[in-house]
Amino acid sequence: MTAREDILKAMKEAGRPVSAGEVEKLTGLDRKEIDKVFKELKKEKAIVSPIRCKWEPAE
Q: Could you report the per-residue pLDDT of 1-59, keeping only the tens digit for each?
C-alpha cells in the first residue's frame, strides 16, 4: 500500500476530520511524508477542511 492509500484509509476509518499529527499516530508514517501527500491531495481536491487544520476525504 502506498503512503497516499494509507493516509486516505486512516482518514476514512477515523470517521471525523483529522489533523496531520493524528494521521501520523494512526499510520506510523513520517510527518514529512504526510505533509507531502496532504499537499498533493489538497491540489487534487481529494481532501477537504471542514474545520481549521483538520482534514477529511472529499465526498
A: 899 999 999 999 999 999 999 999 999 999 999 999 999 999 999 999 999 999 999 97
CA distance 18 to 6: 14
What cell numbers appear for 46 in the block? 481529494
Give CA–CA dist 4/34, Å, rounded: 8
Question: Can you tell me which residue has the cell 470517521?
Answer: 15
Q: Are 24 and 34 in contact (CB under 8 A)?
A: yes
Q: Going from the N-terminus, what domains does the chain have, and what CATH number goes with each?
A: 3-57 (1.10.10.10)
